[in-house]
Input
Amino acid sequence: MNAASFSSAQRRSFTAAGMGYFLSTVIPLLSTVLIFSRLVIEGNDAATVANIAANRTLFRFGVMCDLLMYLNNFFLSVSLYLLLKSVNENISLIALLSRMGDIILGSLSVVCALLVLRLIEGGGFAGAFSVEQLHGLSGMLLDLRYTLTSVTFVFLGVGAALFCYLLLKSSFLPPIPACFGIISFLLLILYAFLKILAPEFAGGFLVQIFFFVPSCLYEVGTGLWMMGSGLLSRSTRNEK
Output
């Protein structure tokens, strides 16, 4: 289906979904690559706490980025549901509910990060623990945050792959990128199980490149294409 033939509601959902796809990769890069990877030192709770304590504003910005990411995922999922429910309402609803699971678990991971900051700043019950205990508790909360984030990939992968299938079936997206999207999100599901079965192997740099880069390429490329197509369709309609 050509974007020019969309109704006004479809065009808005199409363009919003494109923006959501694009931000789904850009925002995590800000928080994970530029912030958390610099502050969190795996296996060294004391050094991690010291880094966070010395860079509280940066850590807060990372937490805010995570929250914005899940908020963006919510609007992306709703936009795709509104766009694709006419194709198959049952599958669209399953995809939406699966993405809601991703968003809920991800939001809990944000709470874990905020609790770490609360402990480091000495708020609430932090005074009841020794320095070593605070380090251990902070490390446990960060590990829980990481675990929750890993589990979200199952729900994200299922929901996102189903949305890609509907985009393929509807012809809203060309066949090659739609099929590539299905494969890339299925890889995220495999990564989540690999993380459980072989965590040390799953943490390898090349392994993460293999599992994560395809979905990033899909989201950025598809997002830009959908935004451009939606805006071009609107411009064409205005000219008429």
